[in-house]
Amino acid sequence: MSQINESAIKTPVVNINEIPSLAPSVAQVATAIPAFIGYTEKAQKIIPGDLRKIPTSISSLLEYQQYFGGAAPMNIVSVKLNELNFVSSSEIKSNFYLYDSIRMFYFNGGSKCYIMSIGSYNDTVDKDAFINDGLMELEKYDGPTLILFPDAIKLNFDLYEVQKQALMQCKKLQDRFCILDLLEIPNWKSGYGLFRENIGVLNLNYGSAYTPYLKSSLPIHIKYSDFFNTLVTPATSKITKAGSIVDLRTLTSNTNAINSIINWNNLIQDLNILKSNLETLITGERESLAGEWTFLVNEFLAEPIASNEADFLALFTYLYKIIKLVDNCETDFTGDFENKGLKKKVDDLITNSLKTTASNLISYDKGAEDNMGPGYNVYTGLTIASTKWNNIFTSAHTDPPVPDTLIFGTDPDEGNRRLAALPALNQVFELLHSGVTQIVSAAQTFESIYEETLLESHSIYKSIVASLKNSLVILPPCGAIAGIYTTVDSTMGVWKAPANVSLNSVKGPSVLIDDKTQQDLKIDTTAGKSINAIRSFTGKGTLVWGARTLAGNDNEWRYVSVRRLFIMVEQSAKKATAQFVFEPNASNTWIKVRAMLENYLTVLWRQGALEGAKPEHAFFVNCGLGQTMTELDILEGRLIVEIGMAAVRPAEFIILRFMHKMNES
User: Fold this and answer.
1) What are the percentages of helix, strand and coil residues in the chain, rounded to 5?
2) 561, 584, 610: which is the final residue of a domain?
3) Is 181 in the same domain as 305?
4) Engineered SS bond to 497: which of 387, 542, 650, 658, CB 3.0-4.6 Å?
């Protein structure tokens, strides 16, 4: 659109003036884009850790697995065998719930969502991580419209503080809605009572809660190491028979099976050595290694070059610690490492690769000193005097070697020399990081080989694994509910209550709820905090049987569909009217704004989102002097629009009235 101020034309020439004839329109915002906050196996798109604490948009379960990995190891509490060596009873739990909640989301119709990884499976679930690294970072992003944090139920009573912070964010931004889980401790009924007591009374219309938990039929991945308590030495089996711990070697005569068990047991001990000596460098936590290095480099670059001596010292000290940890592994392998194949792979890697890296740095430093003069090695490589490199691989040397000549004077080139050394530091780090990754990869390769052999050769073990894979894992319902929201929004509209819809990949609720029990959930006479029930019905399956927000006694915001409809319209109108900022606050602008919003609301009315026989019965849009604005408003630059909508509400209670009709003929 190109408009010309005709009164400003001063030169004889032909000008073309394009006059807009079509009214501006409202682009409707998305309504069911959940953001999942929790713990993942990894968080990597390009380099390890680059997606940590960053809301990342995905559109499929495959994409999630590509960037964030798979499920956490299962927590097998106990497995009991009967006289025939079949599983008589078992208890199995999920260590983390985000991955399974994502699966439930997609199995129930989910589409686009955001993943906010605040840690890995080796981290301790922490309230501050959910609030500071999760919610506060998520607040900066405009895309999400739903907030979920299934892993937060592991916080126990700290869960309520996270939930209150999430509700506060929804109220502040007015563009998102919370789906909350309940604790089921010490039991289910006490759980929803504690929820009502601890959730507070603020911002309740911006969230909904669902209960009970779900018995999911999701596939479970089980491996031999899951049967052992690896936190004790030696690892203790969780398989018992007649009250005694079972050694699976006694249940088979197959040589391959027995050898696989021996190898697996040795590997479990070896992995404990790796975890002990590599600390945070093992498994998924090796991403924290890269994340920490990135942090140190950024800190170094963020400071003025002339004053970042401490950050520069931190860089090579960090590299030293990694080399020292790897070297400790080699020392332990000499006497303690049991898996000979893995020992050789790791030994060769350390001897031929990592130590070679250190040797090359010694030569690099010496060469730099020879070429640039005494002391110049301070500014290159690891900035460590070559004589101290010899101490890196000796157990007697425990402290990071500090350069004798690490004294920075007033030479203006010193800062630039430190900056020029950064590529060399990065090269060293990449070699060390690659070496650690190869160590972990070698261990995982042996795991796969032993597991496959054991399944093929040990029939009883295979039947135990098959039995556990058919176990029902109990999950919080938020992921499945988010999928239902997405399905209902895409097929019928956000104004349709997300209820009376069956759940997929669910065997049933963990607790059966009847009509009388649901009365206490739906109507809270004390504080009005409604909780939506998930119920099992004969011939129908498991259904979502509630559609209320937490503000269950609020006539305006009682229903989830009404609250979310208003969020959608408010945000759509807000984004559409942004184009009129700084336009003349006069009747022409008012007419355009009013026409644009009326057209949008008319479309919603025709789709069934608004109630009324005519558009004027369903909504109103007021904008103008004497209607919504005074002369003072105009002088102070305020353009005020008032919108009223008659939202459709769900028929929550259907009453059929029957009576006898007298015979009239």
Assistant:
1) 50, 15, 35
2) 561
3) no
4) 650
Strands (E), 49-185: 56-58, 74-81, 87-94, 113-119, 146-148, 177-181
> Does residue 38 fall inside a structural domain?
yes
Q: Are residues 291 and 328 in the same domain?
A: yes
Amino acid in position 606 = R
Which residues lie across from 542 on neighbouring strands? 536
196 with 249, same domain: the answer is no
Range of the domain at 484: 34-77+90-220+472-561
From residue 147, give the alpha-carbon distance in Å to each of 72, 386, 455. 22, 54, 41
Are 433 and 481 in the same domain? no
Residue 602: which of 641, 562, 569 has the closest Cα? 569
Indicate whether 453 and 476 sit together in one domain: no
Which residue ranges of the chain lie beneath pLDDT 50? Answer: 1, 362, 364-398, 400-410
Q: Would you say 513 and 521 are in contact if contact means Cβ atoms under 8 Å apart?
A: yes
Dihedral sign for Cα atoms in the order 507, 512, 514, 519: negative
Domain for residue 331, yes or no? yes
Same domain? For 235 and 216 the reply is: no
Beta strands in 503-616 (DSSP E): 506-509, 532-537, 541-545
- In angstroms, rounded to a whole number, what is the distance separating the alpha carbons of residues 207 and 178? 4
What's the pLDDT score for residue 354?
65
Residues 199, 284: one domain?
no
| Residues in Cβ contact with 627 at an 8 Å cutoff, skipping those fewer than 6 apart | 642
Q: What separation in angstroms does the CA of 427 have from each of 6, 319, 543?
A: 64, 11, 56
CB 208 within 8 A of CB 180: yes
pLDDT at 522: 87
Q: Which residue has the tokens 């042996």?
A: 446
Q: How many domains does the chain have?
A: 2
Which residues have a Cβ under 8 Å from the Cβ of 204 and sit 6 or more positions away?
167, 528, 529, 549, 550, 551, 554
Extended strands (E) in 590-663: 619-622, 642-645
Instruction: Establish if 502 belongs to a structural domain.
Output: yes
Domain stop point among 511, 538, 561: 561
Q: pLDDT at position 463, please?
A: 92
Whether 426 maps to a domain, the answer reads yes
* Segment 185-224, tens digit of pLDDT: 778 888 888 999 999 999 999 999 999 999 998 888 888 8
Contact 119, 130 (CB under 8 A): no
Task: Report the pLDDT value the prediction gives residue 266, as an integer from 0 to 100.
Answer: 83
Q: Which residues contact 599 (CB under 8 A, 6 or more apart)?
A: 23, 25, 26
| pTM given for the model | 0.83
pLDDT for the residue 111: 93
d(CA 628, CA 616): 18
* 246 & 138 share domain: no
Q: What gap in Å lies between CA 543 and CA 566, rounded to an integer?
A: 26
> Is the CB of residue 31 less than 8 Å from the CB of residue 50?
no
